[in-house]
Specification:
Strand content: 25-35%
CATH superfamily: Jelly Rolls
Distance between the termini: 36 Å
CATH topology: Jelly Rolls
Order of helices and strands: HHEEEEEEEEE
Strand order of the largest sheet: 1-8-3-6
Number of domains: 1
Shape: globular
Oligomer: single chain
Structural class: alpha+beta
């Protein structure tokens, strides 16, 4: 069930990230409906297993805009967090200094219950559509204690 939710959310993110260009749209229009799985996993980008969801699930969708050179504060997601970078470049670092860098068009399943941060390491503003899936009573993000 969680996989279906993640796939549905990723599909929606692809739809939101498409820019409209009517003439190009008509020229490149597919002859049939297509669906491409961009990611299917039970683990985050660093290999950790995703947390289980107990109780009433809640989905939150956010667009996060990160200026060039900006570094997000160290934080934790106690829920399943996935996203698609629609613009720019973002480097994510976990508490063990393991890193991954994503570029526009890349999808990612974020680490859960682990301190991490993101930094715009590109040359333009980064924009990411983020999908949080968890229990209705669980916060989606908590700042890490120093």
């Amino acid at each position: 069930m969680i996989k279906k939710h993640i796939l549905l959310l990723l599909f929606i993110s692809v739809l939101f990230s498409c820019e409209e260009n009517t003439s190009a749209k008509e020229e490149n229009a597919p002859s049939k409906i297509e669906s491409t799985t961009l990611l299917e996993t039970t683990k985050s980008w660093n290999g950790n297993p995703l947390p289980k969801i107990d109780g009433q699930p809640k989905v939150t969708i956010s667009k996060v805009v990160i200026p060039v050179g900006a570094k997000l504060p160290r934080h934790i997601h106690p829920v399943i967090t996935t996203g698609m970078l629609t613009k720019g470049e973002l480097t994510i670092t976990d508490v063990h200094n393991k890193q991954t860098t994503i570029k526009a068009g890349d999808v990612l399943v974020e680490v859960s219950n682990m301190i991490h941060f993101g930094e715009n390491t590109g040359t333009e503003t980064a924009e990411i559509l983020v999908f949080y899936i968890g229990n209705e009573n669980t916060p989606i993000t908590q700042l890490a204690k120093k």
